[in-house]
TrEMBL record:
This is Type II secretion system F family protein. Keywords: Membrane, Transmembrane, Transmembrane helix. The keyword Membrane applies. The chain crosses the membrane at residues 49-82, 209-231, 237-256. The keyword Transmembrane applies.
Amino acid sequence: MTGAAALLAVSAGLAAAGAAALLPAPARGPGTAATRSAARWWPAGAAAVLVLGLALLLGGAGSALAVLVAVSPAVAVAVRLVRATRAERRAVATGEQVALLCEHLAGDLRAGRPPGPALADAARTWPPADAVARAHRVGADVPAAWRALSTGPGAADLRLIAAAWEVAHRTGHGLAEALQRCVEDQTRARATRRVVRSELASARATARLVALLPVPALLLGASTGAAPWHFLLGSPVGLVCLGLGLLLGAAGLTWIERLAADARRRA
């Protein structure tokens, strides 16, 4: 295989991987389980096809199997990181919607609106909150409905709303005042979380950039006729180097992501 052909194959694979990382996450709306499963796993399939195809061109079926064994753990880690990033973005978006919901609800109650209509209007800001409005209409446990919603990603602040609602119901204390205090606490907490995310963003971006630095070096070597892909994918020593390099890179990224996740949880 010529250096130009290797360069073309790897460039196509990088384009596919970049598209997989940049595409938005599948919507959690209507759709079959098979469709959602395909949308979730096709980036891993694209990476596997790229690696196997390149190995077959360079060294045949035996080389393809060895390469698959060498790179599959790193590919799995990469797909997991992409999915975790998407989940984090969805949680942040949900948190912003929850904040708008709480502000809307507190404002309506301060203006003197009854809880029922205020809940119905607030649910338009965040549709899942309609379950709370229905619970209030039928006389069910409203704090329990809030707590059920708070278990979702990004909705943990609703536990404060549930507690405030329960205290106001049991003690007769003003619900509007209790919710307003919750909104103020949530505003301060969100500001802290934004600072933490912004401080972590540079470190996470640097780690991912460092992990990708070998790729342009390999492409440059292939363009000059050095044939680094033949060494990495067509020889035992190259396969060992490839596997160890990918595993170390994946381990570093995983470690940094866990540190970042721990910092976000404590914020």
